[in-house]
């Protein structure tokens, strides 16, 4: 067995282990500023909780869990994220994906064929990709908020048995940054490859390019001590991806990565690339 193939045999850590208990959310409308504060606070607490667990401090982790509950828990975070993606705040990131896929979807006009999409961390069944007639979307999330979204940990999702069980596109929109462990982020990116298909649509000659839609807060890439645009490119290329599209706003970075080649084993550790007191500690580790 080749070294490359053994990379996928390792059982990755579950995302569910990194998430704290959920509590009932307060559905009161939040302002844009309050929404951002909820999201940022939740991420900070998750990071502190992960560090406490890593150091074996169960007491501290329990205290942080209590604080997360006081702040509304995962449901409050999801409510804030959903509000941030609402139309009145211009936030549906899947509109970018649909725009970028327009040329690839053109051969599907006047046919019954659809590209299969796996949306990880789905919040809505009515976003742009879900409403596109040429996309067959499977939506999963650890804490499903509505019918049509399967409660599923991607890191525990059974591997596809055949090409028909795989997807032409995987969406990781504001998901990778939620994983508190840098090594867990690397495992998630590697695992995506196992769910992408390079085969033509069944019953047709329409070819596809397996793609990963990645959305991150721009600060994860532009203001991190441990991750830069070049390092992200190196990591993705080592996994077999080639950058097809990229867009950056004041808050987010959008990327469409095409999977072109096999995984080339190359470790990337957490190392200072862009030091500075005001920078954050976001990192991606590949083992």
Automatic annotation (TrEMBL):
<keyword id="KW-0949">S-adenosyl-L-methionine</keyword>
<comment type="similarity">
    <text>Belongs to the BMT2 family.</text>
</comment>
<comment type="function">
    <text>S-adenosyl-L-methionine-dependent methyltransferase that specifically methylates the N(1) position of an adenine present in helix 65 in 25S rRNA.</text>
</comment>
<keyword id="KW-0539">Nucleus</keyword>
<feature type="region of interest" description="Disordered">
    <location>
        <begin position="1"/>
        <end position="25"/>
    </location>
</feature>
<dbReference type="InterPro" id="IPR029063">
    <property type="entry name" value="SAM-dependent_MTases_sf"/>
</dbReference>
<keyword id="KW-0489">Methyltransferase</keyword>
<protein>
    <recommendedName>
        <fullName>25S rRNA adenine-N(1) methyltransferase</fullName>
        <ecNumber>2.1.1.-</ecNumber>
    </recommendedName>
</protein>
<dbReference type="Pfam" id="PF11968">
    <property type="entry name" value="Bmt2"/>
</dbReference>
<dbReference type="GO" id="GO:0016433">
    <property type="term" value="F:rRNA (adenine) methyltransferase activity"/>
</dbReference>
<dbReference type="InterPro" id="IPR021867">
    <property type="entry name" value="Bmt2/SAMTOR"/>
</dbReference>
<feature type="binding site">
    <location>
        <position position="141"/>
    </location>
    <ligand>
        <name>S-adenosyl-L-methionine</name>
    </ligand>
</feature>
<feature type="binding site">
    <location>
        <position position="121"/>
    </location>
    <ligand>
        <name>S-adenosyl-L-methionine</name>
    </ligand>
</feature>
<dbReference type="GO" id="GO:0005730">
    <property type="term" value="C:nucleolus"/>
</dbReference>
<keyword id="KW-0808">Transferase</keyword>
């Amino acid at each position: 067995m080749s070294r490359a193939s053994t990379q996928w045999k390792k059982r990755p850590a579950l995302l569910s282990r990194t998430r704290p208990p959920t509590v009932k959310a307060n559905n009161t409308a939040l302002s844009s500023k309050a929404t951002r504060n909820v999201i940022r606070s939740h991420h900070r607490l998750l990071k502190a909780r992960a560090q406490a667990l890593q150091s074996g401090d169960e007491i501290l982790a329990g205290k942080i869990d209590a604080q997360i509950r006081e702040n509304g828990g995962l449901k409050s975070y999801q409510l804030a994220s959903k509000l941030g993606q609402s139309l009145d705040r211009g936030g549906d990131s899947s509109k970018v994906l649909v725009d970028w896929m327009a040329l690839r979807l053109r051969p599907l006009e006047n046919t019954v064929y659809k590209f299969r999409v796996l949306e990880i961390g789905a919040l809505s069944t009515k976003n742009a990709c879900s409403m596109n007639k040429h996309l067959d979307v499977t939506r999963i999330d650890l804490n499903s908020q509505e019918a049509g979204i399967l409660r599923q940990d991607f890191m525990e999702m059974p591997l596809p048995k055949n090409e028909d069980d795989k997807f032409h596109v995987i969406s990781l929109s504001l998901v990778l940054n939620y994983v508190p462990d840098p090594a867990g982020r690397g495992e998630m990116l590697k695992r995506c490859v196992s769910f992408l298909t390079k085969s033509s649509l069944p019953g047709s000659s329409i070819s596809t390019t397996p793609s990963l839609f990645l959305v991150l807060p721009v600060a994860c890439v532009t203001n991190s001590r441990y991750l830069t645009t070049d390092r992200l490119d190196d990591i993705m290329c080592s996994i077999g991806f080639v950058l097809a599209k990229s867009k950056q706003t004041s808050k987010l970075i959008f990327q469409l990565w095409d999977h072109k080649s096999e995984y080339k084993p190359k470790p990337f550790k957490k190392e200072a690339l862009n030091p500075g007191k005001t920078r954050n500690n976001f990192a991606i580790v590949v083992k």
